[in-house]
Amino acid sequence: MRTAVVDASALVKCWVQEPGTAEIRAFLADAERGRLYVSTLTCVEVAATIVRAARGGRIGDSMAGGAVAEVRALARGPLNLLSLSAELMERAMDLAQTHGLRGADCVQLATACEVGEIQAAFERERVGLVAADQALLAAARQEGLDTWNPEEGPLPEG
Q: Fewer CB within 10 Å of terminal CB in the chain, N or C?
């Protein structure tokens, strides 16, 4: 999976220690620049989760501040951001009707489907969705996307 859309449920593991932390860190370290995509919503979700983790005592306040700064830097650097356009919003609402996912997950899935269509138009490799949310991953597979959950171990070869 060289080109992927990364969901907040996976990305947050870079800063909040939980199952899959080592795997997602290794995946991001090995990823080629320009091959990872996120919805702008992902950055907000990750920052909010980090702050909530600090307020709940799971991570320190100074670590949270540094982590949010790192999320901002990732959004300006190696991650390709996709904004919520009117077309993407429509697609997310259609996916909500099809799969019954939560709103943010519908935006993530719509983003992954859009990146997949762009890749297919240029006859590039398939796109994967990286997430730690089983319902989202199941919906992504139904939409024809490759999937990987870092909580289930390292990314399989191939």
A: C
pTM score, two decimals?
0.91
CATH class of 3-149: alpha beta
Residue 124 DSSP SS3: coil
49, with CB counted inside 10 A (0-12, 13-18, 19+), is: buried
**Confidence category of residue 158, pLDDT binned at 50, 70, 90:** low
- Alpha-carbon distance of 66 to 62, in angstroms, equals 6
| Tokens encoding 101 | 């996912």
Burial class (CB in 10 A: 0-12, 13-18, 19+), 109: buried
Cα–Cα dist 11/43, whole Å = 9
Q: Which residues pair with 146 in a beta bridge?
A: 128
Give Cα separations from 123 to 94, 100, 118, 119 (angstroms): 26, 31, 9, 6
